[in-house]
Amino acid sequence: MNRISDKFKNNKKLLSIYFTAGYPKLDDTVEILQQLEKDGVDLVEIGLPFSDPLADGPTIQASSQTALQNGMTTELLFRQLKDVRKTVSIPLIIMGYFNPILQFGVENFCEKCAEIGIDGLILPDLPLAEFEEHYAEIFKKYGLLNIFLITPHTSEERILQIDAASEGFIYMVSRASVTGNSAGFGAETEEYFERVASLQLKNPQIVGFGINNSETFQQATKHTNGAIIGSAFIKMLSEKGKDGISAFVNSIRKV
Amino acid sequence: MNYNVNEKGYYGEFGGAYIPEMLYPNVEELRQNYLKVMAEESFQKEFHQLLKDYVGRPTPLYFAKRLSEKHSTKIYLKREDLCHTGAHKVNNTIGQILMAKRLGKTRIIAETGAGQHGVATATVCALMGLECIVFMGETDIKRQAPNVARMKMLGAKVIPASSGSKTLKDATNEAIRDWINNPLDTHYIIGSVVGPHPYPDMVARFQSIISEEIKVQLNEKEDRENPDFVVACVGGGSNAAGAFYHYLNKPEVGIIAVEAAGKGIDSGESAATSALGNTGIIHGSKTLLMQTPDGQITEPYSISAGLDYPGVGPMHANLFASGRGVFISVTDNEAMQAGLKLCKLEGIIPAIESSHALAIFETRKFKKDDVVVVNLSGRGDKDLDTYINYFKL
């Protein structure tokens, strides 16, 4: 069984953290991963920085730009992660935009991921139809899960389609928004969480976008299997650096 | 080979809709409706009425006698510079605002580089009484103050894009992010034949009025529908798409696209995508774009803000890759000189974008009886400052 699917077996509400590789410092990647595992984070999305991150708000845009200025590249990330499985055992997902992966070569990229022990990919701008037609077989060959997104405006028909094509989990975007919106969740979001829960999908769901503290984590995981924190974690990193990780993770977990 | 879009939204291997799921409902709504709406008789009637009475179409196809003598060939200029708002951009914004109304949208967003598309969008929003928000790079806001003022006078809100390099590419990113944040009431009027399918095809269809008129006008003047060559500048490529449209599948018509070489192809300051780019994904479309080996999109440069885009539309990528179109690039200086030449010989001050197309005659010799149509996409009023500084006028 894949490390990701394994995580969902005991019904815990999973905490997932997103951070941009190469931020705040170029060589922070592995140390951040080790610290996150130590602090009990369940899975991690490693962000591959891109010059034009369409679905991201100002925080992740800025961290991506800094990471690129620091010198982060796809090749370098793979070099940094080469031995990561000697010290980190939680599921690792690479999240990024499709263009850098296309330039690296999709098959090369997947092969590298498999060598390192990456469990899955989240590529927001690689749509379902393109994936299935051109890339699904390559992912399968290298044992990589492709995680798809759904949003409050995704039709029921399409949610079912995405569920059928998914493995691991479904990434539920909490609201019609780019990342880093901290307006809190209203009744409309609650209704969306309930609606998706009632569909009894075969894949577990993890909520992302807009989760920034223990309160929003509780709300997001009431009807789902976990939540992802990105912008709020990056904000903390830019203020406190790696030393702030433990306190941040603990503050989310406290009830 | 067919050079139009196929049913999956591709031109050859280029095109498609590489968009985050958040945009899927909006783009899918458009994809399912755009051809149906455009085929409606009431839509066609309103579109053509506005093009006639409001934009001032048909624009003339003008035989440039002195320019022709100078270059020993027959040169016709398609006078898109005479359109209301000063360029071909308004053909598309009229079409898209009518589309937005039929889809029940009440809020319009757009990106702009030099401000021409922003002005054309603000204009049609004023005409239809719809809210208008234009994203413009902070750098461009500073260098295009008159167009910013125009948009404001027309009632649009201009929002500075302060991410990345603060130019057209970033303005487009900001517009897309706004659309993600406002998926229900908002229509995004993209200004060129770029973006996810169906945008490249929809914009090309609205701009195809250019070559539709050329066919009729050339028939009157030369007793033939087809020129030997049709020439247009390409940034994203909307004026070129319109000028080429009805000739795409007529191999007897030579298609020439002129890109901006900036300070020279090898100078590191250029926007000649066909020479410097390779296949990738920009703004939701698989196409040719300028990027680093690591897949980061690079900053283009051209003296002409309208050509200052790191990609080309997928139709053009396919014309280039298939060899159907001839792609050349001209430098800032070649374009500026060609623009000045048109002023002196024909009494027409062209937009610097269009000056790039005119520079074809400096780099390529045509036969004496060749009929060459150049799409004069815009007028030079907006570029006066640049002309003044360049020629120390």
Automatic annotation (TrEMBL), chain A:
Q: Does the keyword Amino-acid biosynthesis apply?
A: yes
Q: Which reaction does it catalyse?
A: (1S,2R)-1-C-(indol-3-yl)glycerol 3-phosphate + L-serine = D-glyceraldehyde 3-phosphate + L-tryptophan + H2O
> Would you tell me the protein name for this molecule?
Tryptophan synthase alpha chain
One of the record's GO molecular function terms: tryptophan synthase activity
Q: Which InterPro entries match?
A: Aldolase_TIM, RibuloseP-bd_barrel, Trp_synthase_alpha_AS, Trp_synthase_suA
Tell me yes or no: is Mitochondrion among this UniProt entry's keywords. no
Which gene is the coding source of this polypeptide chain? trpA
- What EC number(s) does this enzyme carry? 4.2.1.20
What enzyme category does the UniProt record give?
A: lyase
Q: Where is the active site?
A: 45 (proton acceptor), 56 (proton acceptor)
Keywords, A to Z?
Answer: Amino-acid biosynthesis, Aromatic amino acid biosynthesis, Lyase, Tryptophan biosynthesis
Q: Which GO terms describe its cellular component?
A: cytosol
Provide the family line.
Belongs to the TrpA family.
TrEMBL record, chain B:
- State the source organism's domain of life: Bacteria
Named in its record, the pathway it takes part in is: Amino-acid biosynthesis; L-tryptophan biosynthesis; L-tryptophan from chorismate: step 5/5
Residue ranges of the TM segments = none
Protein name, please? Tryptophan synthase beta chain
Q: Does the keyword Amino-acid biosynthesis apply?
A: yes
Q: Which organism is it from?
A: Aequorivita vitellina
Encoding gene per record? trpB
Positions of modified residues (N6-(pyridoxal phosphate)lysine): 89
The record, for SUPFAM superfamilies, names: Tryptophan synthase beta subunit-like PLP-dependent enzymes
